[in-house]
Fold each of these.
Amino acid sequence: MSSYAYDYSDLNTAALELTADHEELKTNLRRFAMENLRPASIELDKMKPEDVIKEGSLFWQNMRKMHELGYHTLFVPEAYGGIGLDPVSIHIFMEELAYASVGFAVAAGVDCFPSFMANLTVSDHPELEHSIIRPFVNDVECRNTACWAITEPAHGSDILMAGTPYFHNPNISHQVVGKKVGKDYIINGQKSAWVSCGPTASKAALFFGVDPNQGMAGGVIAIVDLMQKGVSRGKPLDKIGQRELPQGEIYFDDAVVPEDYVLCDAEAYEEMSSLILGVANAGMATYALGGARAAFEETLTYSRERIQGGRPLCDHQAVQYKLANMFIGVEAARQMSRSVMNFNLTCFPPRTEYSIASKVFCTKTAFDVVNDGVQIHGGYGLSKEYFIEKLFRDIRACMIEDGSNDSLTIAIANHILFGDTPY
Ligand SMILES: Cc1cc2nc3c(=O)[nH]c(=O)nc-3n(C[C@H](O)[C@H](O)[C@H](O)COP(=O)(O)OP(=O)(O)OC[C@H]3O[C@@H](n4cnc5c(N)ncnc54)[C@H](O)[C@@H]3O)c2cc1C
């Protein structure tokens, strides 16, 4: 397996200039991620899902390292104790982590979600600073990790279609429901096996239904304690890609969400769902970019080493053509994902359709890049001995993760035709 000798990540500074601080951050993150996350992800990929999540496993060791470094506070401003990164730095963070391991990058991303969401609403709910944000920020021992529990067994795309007519169809409503009892919500139902870090998290940003008459729009978002009586987990999912990222069901049986942990009520639910999807999709686009860059660099190295026809593969024009297309894909994905992240993390309200467009474009482009990479590796591209094989599986998942590209594209059409997209 080759090392990361070729650094094409420096060629992208035309649209958004990187400062000396950005460069330093990139160097430090790359070193950390390549020394820790990449080798751990390769080992975890070979393991059974039950072993990935065992106490003291490489998964836990690396999550702990990220908490020690404060990476779990990615979206938390310095005023609340977070690392307080600007949008371009957040983009660099996500690309570098995903370059080393797409699965660990996603695990780090969902770990930040509850404190990110609490941060969005803390001005209206100041109690969240002490109930959610501070305890999470202070958790350098990694006792308090988190997940984003949205997908349900019967509702994948349905739950992500905020802003479309589907979202208001009263025949389609949440499987996880909350009933107001006094000031608390009592939660019952099941989230699907696709919840990233569902088997390991101690808190979830939970989306649940409160008013089925409004269809999927009749929901509430809250932070729920997953260590309480009334919460249980399914067996961790065995899947083809991102195997270093644990996945599994969460069951609620009269679990309690206190009033202080509610982030938004049914009135704000649709807008908040759209906003959160916008941030998640901007992130997924960037994770796909990181994976694509890794695929390109692996392939470039391989094409210089493998001899066929008496010459290195890269001396053949047909291979050069493919390499150039891979390069174009990586650079285009970086420009789009970085601009969209910068735009959507600095404007309010963010334009979710741009994040979705970035997610759909970058994940599809990354898949084309890694597919060309496998082709250039020939038969070895299908062998577990070569890292490109893992990347192929990891990147394929991105076209479904955080929304299937097809459903998301329909959501963009809805924004263009019936929303206020400026066209
Ligand atoms: C690696 C990975 C990580 C994930 N992490 C999380 C997580 O952290 N938390 C979480 O809650 N979920 C997570 N998910 C779940 C993910 O968000 C869903 O898989 C996704 O939204 C698609 O839902 P689904 O799989 O149920 O597919 P379905 O919704 O059943 O869709 C199946 C197919 O039908 C199409 N389709 C669906 N509805 C329509 C429609 N109305 N019109 C036309 N076509 C339609 C879709 O585009 C898709 O091609 C993850 C998924 C993956 C793969």
Amino acid sequence: MLWFSDLLKRLLDLVFPDRCAACGGAGGLLCPNCVAQLQPYPLETPTPGLDSMHVGWIYDQTVRQAIHTLKYRRRRRMAEALGDALATRLAAPPADALVPVPLHAGRLAERGFNQAEELARRLSQRWGLPICATGLERGRDTGHQARLKRAERQTNVAGAFVWCGPNAPPARVVLVDDVLTTGATLAACAAGLRAAGTREVRAVALARSLARPPGTGYAKMGQHPPG
Ligand SMILES: [Zn+2]
């Protein structure tokens, strides 16, 4: 029956071709025109606890719509489009494995997948780096971070990630996340990995808001619930 489901899928693709999440045009879930218009995020000092930190693009309307389609409309294939674009934008970091930022079990059950893991899977293929999606675990529900102020957010997330793998974690890790806000989650992941023996922790993320008013963590425009 495999050939039949394959055929059916091809027919459905013909009848309902992918529409771009940002402009509604043809050419895939995120069309080449919209990808070309994404604004590269400037290099900035990594969050303490990270050896390097690279963000693909400024969190604008196009990125917001693409991530919304991935996370809330649950179009997992959007992770492939975003992963391809990010792998083209950023060079593969020196590392032994990619580790997606874990999603809390409750949120995972609700959504059915971890968007950071989907993204890491595509980056893994494109960069030729292994993915290590089990081992780093989110210890407790850190709640909806978006509602917390920056300082609260940092204490809320600290110590929330623990390495639970049967073996030691990879020595050189690249954390993968979708939207970077204060960096508190990445710092907590890095602390959990280092406590278990990881020596180098780098991070890549799809996007980050450019202007973050002090104390709020991220900008008014382009607000986005982290997680
Ligand atoms: Zn488009």
